[in-house]
Amino acid sequence: MTNAPPLPSTLNPDGKSLFNPPAPARSPAYDEFPAPIISSNNGFDFHIYYMPSNHAETQYARELHERIRREFPELRIYRFWDRPVGPHPTAMFEVNTFTPHQTGAFFSWLTVHRGPCSVLIHPNTNDPYRDHTELMSWMGRPWPLHTELLKPRPADPAPSAS
C-alpha cells in the first residue's frame, strides 16, 4: 500500500486491540485464494492422520471420515487408507477444499472435531515440495514426511542415437 496514510495507534474500547479504520472494500482473499495457490483443481489439502495400531484412534478416524462425508458433501473426500501412502508416514485420509470460505469453515470445524488425529494442511501451488514443507500448517502433533518423494526428479536423459 504505497501512499497510504499511517494507521492510527488508537485503541478500541476494550483497551487492548487496535482500531482499524474501515477499508473501502473487503479483502479479495475472502473470495479467492492468493497467488500462488491454485484453485482450479483444489486450493487446500487436509490430510487427517491416525495411528492404525491404536484401535480407539482408528475407530475415531473412521467415524470422523464418515461424519465429514455427511456434513461436508461438497468437499472432495478420499478413501480411508489403513497404511502410509506417498509422502505420508502413517495411515490417513484426505479432504480437499476449493474456496477460501470452505477452507475456513472446514478448518474451524476440524479444530473442534479432529480428536486424537493430527492434520497436515497445505495449499496447492506448482511446487509440491514447498507446499508440504514451508507452506503447510499442522493441527495436533506434526509427523515427519517422506519429502524426498516430493522433490522434482531430473528429467530422463534423451536416448542417444547411436
UniProtKB/TrEMBL annotation:
One Pfam entry name: DOPA_dioxygen
Coiled coil: none
Region described as Disordered: spans on this chain: 1-25
Name of protein: Uncharacterized protein
Species for this entry: Psilocybe cubensis
